[in-house]
Amino acid sequence: MEDPFRTIEWRGDHIRLLDQTLLPLDEKYIEIRTVDEMCDAIKRLAVRGAPAIGVAAAMGIALGMLGASGMDREAYRARFDEVCAQIAATRPTAVNLFWAVSRMRAVLEKAEKLNVPDPSALLVEEAVALEREDRALCERIGHNGMGLLDDGDTVLTHCNAGGLATAGYGTALGVIRSAFENGKNIRVISDETRPLNQGSRITSWELQKLGVPVTLIPDNTAGALMQRGEIQKVIVGADRIAANGDAANKIGTYSVAVLARHHGIPFYVAAPLSTIDMSLRSGTEIPIEERDPREVTHIGGIAIAPEGVAVRNIAFDVTPHELIHGIITEWGTASEPYEESFRAFFAAQEKGGAV
Amino acid sequence: MEDPFRTIEWRGDHIRLLDQTLLPLDEKYIEIRTVDEMCDAIKRLAVRGAPAIGVAAAMGIALGMLGASGMDREAYRARFDEVCAQIAATRPTAVNLFWAVSRMRAVLEKAEKLNVPDPSALLVEEAVALEREDRALCERIGHNGMGLLDDGDTVLTHCNAGGLATAGYGTALGVIRSAFENGKNIRVISDETRPLNQGSRITSWELQKLGVPVTLIPDNTAGALMQRGEIQKVIVGADRIAANGDAANKIGTYSVAVLARHHGIPFYVAAPLSTIDMSLRSGTEIPIEERDPREVTHIGGIAIAPEGVAVRNIAFDVTPHELIHGIITEWGTASEPYEESFRAFFAAQEKGGAV
After folding, report:
1. What ipTM describes this predicted complex?
2. What's the predicted TM-score (pTM) here?
């Protein structure tokens, strides 16, 4: 089945993306024409999800460098560094953002070595390739993970690790979708995922469009359903994974992992290799974004808390590797010791080239 | 310190209560003049919290029977049964509702035995006594529990077990308030408590009014704060407690209890004896209310989920006694085996009379 939407798309001189802040009430595509506009879109979560942010970052850089065509080599490089720094400062947790910046930098360096007069076309090409790759590797993640789901399973997911968190198809939802499209009877429980309700607004909407049976619950209901025996598996995405397998993901993921462990329910993470940060030994080194208290105290402009109340709005938490049954990537499902699995996958990727 | 509000109050020919659905934006008292109006107020949670519902039920019955003054004995009894049935049908989980109905029935039966010509005045007296008692026993719960909190503790609470869940002072918040008013440096983390946000709307508001430092979090953030070592104790209320100590409370309480256990954090329940239902052997026998899906899919009339999505809106869950470190009552703190503790407390109450 085709994706029922297009998360992000290169359009020659601009980028078109689905404004995810307006879902599910409004399915509106916006046009991004400057680096500032792209940074704003990433910061306010018009585009979100680690892999999608990676693609958005690459396209944002390509867009910024279109305007630098014709500059001399030094000025071009200075502009490139400036654009990359601006993009890299948007959000701290998802490593795919920094990974995409590195990929773009590698292209520029190669172009410089080859004395390419104007590297902008190559940068555009790389950004577009990155988007295509991301879609393809999500399908591979789906294929690799679907065997972990059994016919008749009800699967809990948290936040949105679907087509809208990627260039398409999704990671955690990609696994669910693969199993479903291959004839398994799968039902999904979607945590609403406060404070920005990606579960109610995006995951439910995506699964409805795909025809996968989905039931929405408040985040605090997952434990009660596990206690009743109504959940067989948990699959979530990730924003950054340390070498030891510790995985940062949307706030609340850690609580779900603890609950899953308490009930003996397998807990899986699905993510591309670009989410794995081998430079970090453990999850304690992952920078965690804290966001505006107003996201917690207001919904749609309406106050739901007394004025001036103190708030903790921590955007991500870290699930330690001991609570994770497997990390499903495009190169296979990693398991303990994760570092070994990851090294093998990176080696395979090196050998096999891009997906 | 005086309560900064009055949850519910008998006013001669009507009942005045703070409409909790409008908090924190609007501090509006409403007048209840019929049994229908009281049933509606309980159903739509204008008054909520197990002990407060008990008082509301008793006052609702007294109000209904005022209109029956002058009826002959059989007609009066028939009307009484009708009013009680209507009140008892409002909400299924909080046992205090049924306990209050029994207390009123005992008064009527005594009046019948004594051939009191019009028992209405006695019923009003009982309802008013019940409100006064509830306030007093909450203070005793606070006093009994405050020793469990240490100077410097940050205490997590879920939903609202404060003055607004009772006739005043509160159960879980009563313990916090006692410790705070006795000079302990206590901070509170308040789970927002989806879907009706009693934590953000009511608990935060109440604690702000009392001057207790409070920080609001989405429900899914409790685990991350425990992981970071930022929470030392958990105290919650209860809507019904079985003889073995299993405790039904607002949905999400069970998840908090599992998280507390995982992190070695003591988890306490604070509730009056009227919340203990010795007729139930375990929590599996407690009826659990499921409510309108719209509470999950809409906030303030605004849709936050796609149209037609399936929803589970389970209002309560049951925390098994093994996860509870102690149940703080007006007669002391019960511990394993709970049934024994409870029997001793009921015997003391029998002997000592009302609090």
Report:
1. 0.96
2. 0.96
